[in-house]
Amino acid sequence: MIVRFAVFIFWLTHFLPFRVLVVIGNVLGLLFYMAATERRFVATVNLKLCFPDMSEDARNKLVRDHFKMFGRGLIERSILWWSSAERISSLIRVEGIEHFDAIKNKPSILLTPHFVGMDVGGQWVAQHTDTVCMYANQKNFYLTDLLLQKRARFGKQRLYSRFQGLRPILKGMREGMPFIYPPDQDQGIKDGAFIPFFGVPAATMTSVPRIAQMTGAKIVPSITRLLPGGQGYVLTFYPAWENFPSGDDIADARRMNEFIEQRVQEMPEQYFWLHKRFKTRPDGEAGFYPE
Questions:
Q1: pTM of this structure
Q2: Residue by residue, what is the 3-state secondary structure of the chain?
């Protein structure tokens, strides 16, 4: 009942002007910063590992700025879930749209690393083509169902649980549907390897080059930036990667991580630092986070 009431309040926010939502998001993020001590610790550890030369003051400021962006990404999602397609589109400026157009109706992977604006880009894409993607179940069944409904509100999106495996994903790709794939979370090394991320060995999925090999898919990265104030968002599509896959999964995964590193350096406050990116460690190496 509490969850449903919270969703009702969340629904009400989508009627507010965008500039007001930005302010609410920043305040909400600062409240999270003060209350979420464990996640604040995780973000601090991640930044120490990735930017060891950064001063403590700069690192603390970056953690606060990230929480503000996280709050914005959360509250502004109400627009993505309940506002019209026209309102959503009016807030998004698209760069490199020719790279998106070039892969429509062809096997492709839209590489979408975990920046706070990734769902914004996903909704724009859903308005322009049908896609396939994977999702993780939430602890609350109602929230899982709500997330699925809202991510599929435009077009005929196909969303599959991770437990369903790759077969339905590959089928959709071969029918010409882009696969929206976030490649940068720690899911262990069962289907991956330890690949440097900012110089730190990180459990990294090597499935992208394998899927590309099986389907002939082009890899087109897609990054969404949240702009300050009420300016909205910039969705950028990058050129399809040449010579990918190369035949060396480790080299391809390293190339993928290096691309993400470059984008993180452009807007470090918008990368998802609250995730335990370095949770899985090589044998014998101590963990960075408390259990």
A1: 0.94
A2: CHHHHHHHHHHHHCCCCHHHHHHHHHHHHHHHHHHCHHHHHHHHHHHHHHCCCCCHHHHHHHHHHHHHHHHHHHHCHHHHHHCCHHHHHHCEEEECHHHHHCCCCCCEEEECCCECCHHHHHHHHHHHCCCEEEECCCCCHHHHHHHHHHHCCCCCCEEEEHHHCCHHHHHHHHCCCCEEECCCCCCCCCCEEEEEECCEEEEEECHHHHHHHHHCCEEEEEEEEECCCCCCEEEEECCCCCCCCCCCHHHHHHHHHHHHHHHHHHCHHHECCCCCCCCCCCCCCCCCCCC
Check residue 141 and give its pLDDT: 82
Q: What is the pLDDT of residue 274?
A: 97
Separation of alpha carbons 127 and 124, rounded Å: 5
- Between CA 194 and CA 258 the distance in angstroms is 14
**Per-residue pLDDT, 118:** 95
Per the CB < 8 A criterion, the answer to whether 120 and 132 are in contact is no
Query: How many other CB atoms sit within 10 Å of the CB of residue 152?
Result: 16
Q: In this structure, what token pair is assigned to residue 285?
A: 């190496």
For each successive 10 residues of the chain (291 residues), what is the average pLDDT? 87 96 97 96 98 97 98 96 96 97 93 96 95 83 87 92 88 94 90 94 94 95 95 97 95 97 98 96 91 71
pLDDT recorded at residue 231: 94
